[in-house]
Design goal:
single chain; elongated; ABC-type uncharacterized transport system permease subunit; transmembrane
Length: 75
């Protein structure tokens, strides 16, 4: 049994922010060179994608749940 509702938008946002953290850590550790402007599309793109996923998920859930005012829904 799930303890909370699964939210894929937060999962996508967390994945992209973790990617940004790994890129910065690799740059700070000297493993590779990451230009500063790379983080802007990574973070903003991830947040936009997460917002889109969250919006689409809410649409799917809204269509799947029956309307309580509908007389055809079983009680």
């Amino acid at each position: 049994m799930l303890r909370h509702e699964f939210q894929p938008g937060r999962l996508v946002a967390g994945a992209f922010l973790t990617l940004a953290a790994v890129l910065y850590a690799g740059d700070a550790g000297g493993a590779w060179e990451t230009p500063w402007f790379v983080m802007i599309p990574v973070v903003t793109g991830g947040l936009c994608l997460a917002g889109t996923v969250a919006f689409l998920t809410s649409l799917v859930r809204r269509r799947r749940t029956p309307d309580p005012r509908d007389p055809d829904t079983p009680a």
